[in-house]
Amino acid sequence: MSDDLVIRPIGKVESTLTDRADAPRQGDEGAPDAWLVFDESVREGLRDLRVGSEILLITWFDRARRDELLVHPRGDLARPETGVFSTRSPDRPNPLGLHRITILAIDGLRFQVRNLEALDGTPVVDLKPVLGDLTER
Amino acid sequence: MSDDLVIRPIGKVESTLTDRADAPRQGDEGAPDAWLVFDESVREGLRDLRVGSEILLITWFDRARRDELLVHPRGDLARPETGVFSTRSPDRPNPLGLHRITILAIDGLRFQVRNLEALDGTPVVDLKPVLGDLTER
């Protein structure tokens, strides 16, 4: 059964961000444009994504610590320790990143995106549409 | 390295929903109130969550198919097949569910929540705050 809970990455991030100390806290706080490079095996699943769309991206913070339950929000030691599930810290038991990004360009399996603070090489796990009103689903 | 991409569930869903055919398509389309039951090992990480808060929940759809790349949106055969990453289908390469829920009650490690369409027994993977304006982070 535990075999069912293994993430199989569908691609990876290409970014000029390589050091966690340099990464912005959130994508809309000065992240550079980056690329998502997908595996050939998921090509068909990507076919309805369009330039200009705003989507949700799930990544796996592969350089995070999984044993943290209390963190200082935004790494600011002046702020009191907070339960990790009330924060967006990458350090958490299952280090999934959730990013709201915009697709800037599509070149085959390469997608250029805006507002992604993930580091170069970060595994890409999933993409989902932002849910609109009931009538648009 | 692949060992790093193993999800370790932090709890599970308790719900009256047991059959996928009966589950609503999204949590705000008639899902019953449900409970999240967390593992003792993550108690400290939960301590700043409050009744009334709206949060994001990530689950693992353990009864989903991982080999689907094209689906009919909302299971409606009248709608054309769509690349899975443009849909919220549970059937997807990494079957993570993303749910926006409200905490109705907290009883130790048991949290009652509104708007959760996940089935009974679904593994709970992560909780994250909804991101507010820059000034509130």
Written description of the protein model:
The structure is a homodimer of 137-residue chains. The first copy, chain A, is mainly β and 137 residues long. Chain A has one domain: Beta Barrel (Elongation Factor Tu (Ef-tu), domain 3), CATH 2.40.30. Helices cover 0% and strands 32% of the residues of chain A. Chain A contains no helices and 8 strands. Chain A has a 6-stranded antiparallel β-barrel with strand order 1-2-7-6-3-8. In chain A, strands 4-5 form a two-stranded antiparallel ribbon. In chain A, β6 and β7 form a beta hairpin. The N and C termini of chain A lie far apart (33 Å). At the A-B interface, β3, β5 and β8 of A face β3, β5 and β8 of B.
List the helices and strands and how they pair.
Two copies of one chain form a homodimer.
Chain A: E1 11-14, E2 34-38, E3 54-60, E4 70-71, E5 82-83, E6 96-107, E7 110-114, E8 123-129
Antiparallel strand pairs in A: 1-2, 1-8, 2-7, 3-6, 3-8, 4-5, 6-7
How is the largest sheet of chain A built, in terms of strand order? Answer: 1-2-7-6-3-8
At the fourth CATH level, what is the homologous superfamily of chain A? YaeB-like
What is the CATH third-level topology name of chain A? Elongation Factor Tu (Ef-tu), domain 3
Mean pLDDT value of chain A: 91
- Largest interface: which pair? A-B, 50 and 50 residues
How widely separated are the two ends of chain A? 33 Å
| Count of DSSP H/I helices of chain A | 0
Subunit arrangement of the protein? homodimer
Report strand % of chain A.
Answer: 25-35%
Number of distinct beta strands of chain A: 8
SSE order of chain A in H/E notation? EEEEEEEE
Shape of chain A: globular
Q: Percent of residues of chain A in helical segments?
A: under 10%
CATH architecture of chain A: Beta Barrel
Biggest beta sheet attributes of chain A = 6 strands, antiparallel, barrel
Estimated radius of gyration of chain A = 16 Å
Number of domains of chain A: 1
pLDDT below 50 for ≥5 consecutive residues: which ranges of chain A? none
The secondary-structure class of chain A comes to mainly beta
Name of the CATH first level of chain A: Mainly Beta
Keywords (chains A, B): S-adenosyl-L-methionine
Pfam families (chains A, B): TrmO_N (PF01980)
Family (chains A, B): Belongs to the tRNA methyltransferase O family.
InterPro entries (chains A, B): TrmO-like_N (IPR023370), UPF0066_cons_site (IPR023368), YaeB-like (IPR040372), YaeB-like_sf (IPR036413), YaeB_N_sf (IPR036414)
